[in-house]
Design brief:
The protein is of the alpha/beta class. The chain has twelve helices and eleven strands. The chain has two domains: about 20-150, Rossmann fold; about 175-335, Rossmann fold, CATH 3.40.50. The two termini are about 40 Å apart.
Length: about 350
């Protein structure tokens, strides 16, 4: 289908009092979701340089949003799991433009559309016939999905435009291998003893190893460190999330990241850090890193599952069978196939981001 009309208001016109028109983007999800939306956010920034871009997202992502260099202000918005927030605490005049980078149907479409924007950009859905748009596809990679949406509306977007600038701070463990055993659901958590086996082998080879943990993942990270014979000081985070500025400095300065299908994998991709990423219930064709020697993807579907984008339950309460087919030897072999240190894709130069209001 052809776009309904070219994107309007690229330059924007200042409102009375010199206030910039607002462009509201809904993406009230996690860190990985934010980073996969960077190409779309960058396209919106280029197309609307005179707009104030307001990102509706969880407040804990404020520093990460600033690091993308695409957002002027964060509007705190969150909901449990991957649900749509019940409301947005928007004040002032309606946004000039609202963009739904959150969902595929009425709950997220109407959340932004009810604010009264001049125009709403979203995927087509029978429940919101007043909003034109392209058709949603379940088998599409997340980066490509949102770039296709914008391109349909006449805003060119490149899914490969995903790198963010290097952080300003120094790494707390330069050159270390970062091992991240956590994930939001058990279905995407490779067993702790296997992460520990990999960490122990890397330690024996002379690599420094840091085990990272999100909020509540401290016991898991300490179990991995203890099994691997690592000192307690090798665990970073756990009681709460590692602050983004520190986490991004760690990942940017790492030799490599070994991680499951979770937000830290997307941070490694965004910073150009080599990675080994383990997939289970969801195919890497939906959430995997770009095809580059610096990123090694491990996925072990059977013949019946190979062409299915979601052969398992991503929110299941036990490790997915496809994930369990990956061995510690598989991960070490993938690590050995990574390019030498410093040979990953170069991160975008970028300026040091200003804190978001």
């Amino acid at each position: 289908a052809a776009p309904a009309a070219p994107a309007a208001g690229a330059a924007g016109s200042r409102r009375p009092g010199g206030r910039r028109p607002a462009l509201l983007v809904l993406r009230a999800l996690g860190l990985g979701d934010l980073l996969t939306a960077v190409p779309a956010l960058r396209a919106l920034r280029r197309a609307h340089p005179d707009h104030e871009i307001v990102l509706a997202a969880p407040g804990r992502l404020r520093d990460a949003a600033a690091a993308t260099g695409t957002v002027d202000r964060l509007l705190p918005a969150a909901a449990p799991g991957r649900a749509v927030p019940e409301r947005l605490d928007w004040t002032g005049p309606p946004p000039d433009l609202a963009v739904d980078l959150h969902g595929s149907g009425p709950p997220s479409h109407l959340l932004v559309h009810r604010l009264g924007p001049r125009r709403t950009l979203a995927y087509a859905h029978p429940g919101t016939p007043a909003i034109p748009g392209p058709n949603w596809r379940d088998d599409e990679h997340e980066r490509h999905r949102w770039c296709r949406l914008l391109t349909w509306y006449g805003i060119p977007a490149d899914p490969g435009d995903l790198l963010i600038g290097p952080p300003a701070g120094e790494s707390p463990a330069p050159g270390a291998v970062v091992v991240h055993p956590g994930a939001d659901a058990a279905a995407r958590r490779w067993p702790a003893e296997r992460f520990a086996a990999v960490a122990a082998r890397l330690r024996d080879r002379g690599h420094g190893v840091v085990v990272t943990a999100g909020a509540g993942e401290g016991p898991l990270a300490r179990e991995v460190a203890d099994r691997a014979g690592l000192p307690r000081g090798s665990v970073l985070g756990g009681a709460e999330d590692v602050p983004f500025t520190r986490l991004s400095a760690l990942v940017a300065g790492a030799r490599a990241v070994v991680v499951g299908d979770t937000g830290l994998a997307h941070l490694a991709t965004a910073l150009g850090t080599p990675s080994v990423v383990l997939f289970g219930p969801v195919s890497p064709r939906l959430w995997g890193p770009p095809d580059h020697p610096a990123h090694r993807v491990l996925w072990r579907p059977d013949a019946a599952d190979r062409d299915r984008p979601r052969p398992g339950d991503a929110h299941g309460d036990r490790p997915d069978e496809r994930l369990l087919r990956i061995t510690a030897e598989d991960v070490l072999a993938a690590f050995d196939a990574l390019p030498p240190a410093g040979r990953g894709p170069a991160a975008a130069p970028g300026r040091v981001p200003e804190p978001l209001p």
